[in-house]
Amino acid sequence: MTKTIENRGKPVRLVVVNAGVNDPSTTRMLADRIAQKSIEHITGTGKTAVLSVIDLAPLAVDIARAVVAGFPEAKVQSVIETLAGADAVVAATPVYKAGVSGLFKSFIDILDNDLLIAKPVILAATAGTARHAMVADAQMRPLFAFLRTFPVPTSIFAAPEDWGSPELGGRIDRAATELTQFLLSGTSRSIADAAWKGYQHQFAGNAARAERSAADVNFDTDLMKLAAGGTAVERMIVRG
Known about the structure:
This protein is α/β, with parallel strands linked by helices and 240 residues long. The protein has seven helices and eight strands.
């Protein structure tokens, strides 16, 4: 679905990475609430917000292929490019066995270490019990610190009992406020512009496909006998 409304100024590109697999997905529901509140704050400053949602579930097989082959094919490369163009990110995962989902981690594993340098990120997680409440801070925060992003101070966690709680809405609003203030500061662009040459750029920012091609990989092995998934990017352009 695409919705376009004109507004002056360069749009702020907000990208959601959703690792929820159910339909409906509580992880996607939480990510949507965070994205909507972030858009409200961003457009409240007079800017235009461009929202892209990357649903990982339809790409699960393609992500697995990329992990095994060592490079992404077209579908995964497309969403990586969408993510590379983000000004800010909402990263949302379900929690399984006291950890982030394997699908979420596998997607992060195939990203260039330089892809998200200095970008602000809201960390979000859902689970069936409050016992997992620390996963966003204990696992996601160091993961995104390794990628040299700026996770905002407030992370979001939702167990079943949280959905009707005003405290959840308060945390979402606080995280969206922090994200917006970071964007308004221009810190991300300043850091990237000033320090870009100092980073390793191990995989050239995933900007170009690896020289290896599908012809170099044997897809007849047991690990590589995987079918392709579906599209994952849904875009909306919203103005305040």
